[in-house]
Amino acid sequence: MVGLTIDGAPVKAPAGATLLEACRQVGTEIPTLCYLPTLTPVNVCRICVVEVERNRTLVPACSRVAEEGMVVATDSERVRHSRKMVLEFLDSSVDLSLADDEIEDWVDRYGADTARYGPLSAPAAAGERDGRKPGHHHPPDGATAEGVHQPTKVDNSLYVREYSRCILCYKCVEACGIDAQGTYAIAVAGRGFDARISTEMDLPLGDSACVFCGNCIAVCPTGALMFRSEWELRRADLWDPEKQAVTRTVCSYCGVGCNLELHTQDNRIVKVTSPQDHEVTNGNLCIKGRFGYDYVQNLGDVEQDPIDEVLKAARRPVGE
Ligand code: SF4
Ligand code: SF4
Ligand code: FES
């Protein structure tokens, strides 16, 4: 165990624990965006920073290991100011309207002025952001806040990519690559403000290395990656979480025994997830468990069901 001080109180934490773990163990809340217990910390969002005595810069609590004698302040003026700036930068450039609710709570808690940099700049045309070369910069116009918005990528029947909502937390990259799937179909392309998540050579998902496990969708905190079924139902104004139930069951495809969470609405499965805290799957599934559920429901067999047409359309190849 190591002994440290957190916000003036003595705390004992297991050797090797991060400051985030030490704080959570004593009930001190630290906001996180790019952190997930099942993924390797990448330290990119910096919302979790705390102040450590005798350290020149603020440190990311999600990855900094607690050390004997550390004196940590989690809610100092400097910490609050830094978190406020992170939230203002994010909200000025990214569409956070479908992000986890807690982000909105943080905006209030840290007094972030999300309109500070003016109205959002005009959206990039399809493919324009993807075509930007490293080192490409242009001067700001001074009147608008530069945004990351671009047309939604709908290139398959399983999931869509709406990178106007992407905060570049890297969770999808970690889940696709080293931490879960080992597929490495997506990574960060570009540099600076032009950085974006991309397949190799910006290929459509179906032509890339993607195996459509959907593990990237499962970790995305902002709705940038979304089940095609959910996306189509939202577009048709039929997505209704109030009417949805979640039923836990076991995948029927193989002997691994992955746990599934079937999200149902109007007696239809509208998406499938897996519990993050399950020791077999850690929230991950393969394409069959996550998307192969059509055989249990005969869409169209209940004539008055208004969501059937939308769900059927979502499964058709793009353009049909
Ligand atoms: S669906 Fe799976 S393989 Fe495809 S990009 Fe997402 S994590 Fe990678
Ligand atoms: S697509 Fe989602 S998970 Fe991936 S970097 Fe963007 S916000 Fe994070
Ligand atoms: S949660 Fe620590 S840097 Fe993102």
Description of the molecule:
A five-stranded mixed beta sheet has the order 2-1-5-3-4, with helices on both faces. Strands 10-11-12 form a three-stranded antiparallel beta sheet. It is globular, with a radius of gyration of 21 Å. With 320 residues, it is an alpha+beta fold. It has helices at residues 19-25, 77-93, 101-109, 171-176, 215-219, 228-235, 287-291, 307-315, and strands at 2-6, 9-13, 49-52, 59-60, 71-73, 159-161, 186-189, 196-199, 225-227, 245-250, 259-265, 268-273. It contains eight helices and twelve strands. The structure holds iron/sulfur cluster (2 copies) and FE2/S2 (inorganic) cluster. One iron/sulfur cluster (SF4) is lined by residues 175-176, 181, 183, 185-186, 210-216. The site of FE2/S2 (inorganic) cluster has 12 residues, from loops.
**Arithmetic mean of pLDDT:** 92
Give Rg in angstroms: 21 Å
> Low-confidence stretches at least 5 residues in length (pLDDT < 50)?
none
Name the overall outline.
globular
For the biggest β-sheet, the strand order reads 2-1-5-3-4
Return the string of H and E elements: EEHEEEHHEHEEHEHEEEHH
Fraction of residues in helix:
10-25%
In DSSP terms, counting alpha (H) and pi (I) runs of 4 or more, how many helices? 8
Fraction in beta strands:
15-25%
The biggest beta sheet reads: 5 strands, mixed
Give a count of the beta strands, DSSP E runs of length 2 or more: 12
Detail the topology: elements first, then pairings.
Layout: E1 2-6, E2 9-13, H1 19-25, E3 49-52, E4 59-60, E5 71-73, H2 77-93, H3 101-109, E6 159-161, H4 171-176, E7 186-189, E8 196-199, H5 215-219, E9 225-227, H6 228-235, E10 245-250, E11 259-265, E12 268-273, H7 287-291, H8 307-315
Parallel strand pairs: 1-5
Antiparallel strand pairs: 1-2, 3-4, 3-5, 6-9, 7-8, 10-11, 11-12
The chain binds iron/sulfur cluster (2 copies) and FE2/S2 (inorganic) cluster.
Residues 175-176, 181, 183, 185-186, 210-216 line the site of one iron/sulfur cluster.
